[in-house]
Amino acid sequence: CRFVIIVKWTPLVLLLLLGLFACPCKSGPPPLAQPPLLSGQPFIIFWGIRDSSCFDRADARSFGMEPERIAVFYEDTLGNYPYFIDKSTPVNKGLPQHTRLNSHIQKLQQDLDAALPSPRYLGLGVLRWAEWLPQWSRNREKQAMYQEASRKLMKSFFPKWTPEEVEKWSKVRRFVMMESLREVKRLRPKALWGFSPYPGCNNNDPTQTALSNYTGRCPPAEAALNDELLWLWKRCSALYPLLTLDKLQVEASSHSISKNRSNEKLTKQEGNRLKHSYLVVFLLHFSPLKTDLVNTIGESAAMGTAGIVIWDKSEPKTERECQDLADFVQKVLGPYIMNITTATQLCSASLCQGRGRCVRLDPDSSAYLHLPPSSTVTGKVTENLKKRKQFKLHIFMYKMNVRIKKVSEQIALRSL
């Protein structure tokens, strides 16, 4: 699909576009949200793909993406994280029970200084540690080797395996994660730190997505497991759930998967002091389909997330891969991002004078924050004015409570 972005704004066109998002809000102060990382940008796209080896790489900045304010750390790039390459090849002794915290923290400090030299780094900090998970029941498939290795270790100390030993395993993993998070927040306090892929949802089971009545809702068991991670939500300054684009094969199911992961993420956000929330989109392929972008980026913007991290752990290695990536950014991804980030800014300006973020009034609706696809709004205004009642605002939380109250009252009065 082709997007033509309005670059030159006339007063009339700007006024009409603001009208698309103007909504008669309910009386009373609107909900609060954390201010955006970058002022004036309620929805930010971060470019996390390592493409420095490409000679003719895509210019993410020209489409409004942020390539310099995202740092993703893996199992082998921050501290002495324990994991297994395979059953017979442990790294840092393989299990968190073996972790020597002092050595781990010392190595973490060195790695962080090398990756982010400035103590005033202002950006995202994502700990992508996924070899083992902090909850016993979520270690499935390959991760089951950690259960087996832990049982062997614990049986060397205890003749019988009991629930207490299971709990001890969970506490050890929790301790490694908490202390690591505490240290990176201390060393780079302005960054937004969190673990990915949390909160989890596990709503992309192929046996379920193929069903005609598939809803995409997170299974109750997964939602309950997320509730048990309160200790993690309290300590993270941002939430980074993961969505793998390659798995979204059917338009209807991809919309449901993304929507419900956003719902689960925002549930944890609202219950834990208004965390920043970003959806990490893992690009296993460069999809030419607009529907994939709408169902991931567009859905997250409409649900009120702070932004998107576009990420791929592997780096393009061949000239063809570099060219495919550049074409994808220039022809598909970039124009769509310009469209939606501009729309979120206009909606913020219209509903709350730039002091808040627009959020879909009905989470189950199909309302999106999109500009008209043409370069003018002639003939489009009447149709798009239907959006006037489809969005509400979440006002940004300021440091001084007096200012929060004052701004909230002003906006509440405007909506009467």
TrEMBL record:
<dbReference type="GO" id="GO:0004415">
    <property type="term" value="F:hyalurononglucosaminidase activity"/>
</dbReference>
<keyword id="KW-0326">Glycosidase</keyword>
<dbReference type="InterPro" id="IPR017853">
    <property type="entry name" value="GH"/>
</dbReference>
<dbReference type="GO" id="GO:0031410">
    <property type="term" value="C:cytoplasmic vesicle"/>
</dbReference>
<dbReference type="GO" id="GO:0005975">
    <property type="term" value="P:carbohydrate metabolic process"/>
</dbReference>
<protein>
    <recommendedName>
        <fullName>Hyaluronidase</fullName>
        <ecNumber>3.2.1.35</ecNumber>
    </recommendedName>
</protein>
<dbReference type="InterPro" id="IPR013785">
    <property type="entry name" value="Aldolase_TIM"/>
</dbReference>
<comment type="similarity">
    <text>Belongs to the glycosyl hydrolase 56 family.</text>
</comment>
<dbReference type="Pfam" id="PF01630">
    <property type="entry name" value="Glyco_hydro_56"/>
</dbReference>
<dbReference type="InterPro" id="IPR018155">
    <property type="entry name" value="Hyaluronidase"/>
</dbReference>
<keyword id="KW-0732">Signal</keyword>
<feature type="signal peptide">
    <location>
        <begin position="1"/>
        <end position="27"/>
    </location>
</feature>
<dbReference type="GO" id="GO:0030214">
    <property type="term" value="P:hyaluronan catabolic process"/>
</dbReference>
<keyword id="KW-0378">Hydrolase</keyword>
<keyword id="KW-1015">Disulfide bond</keyword>
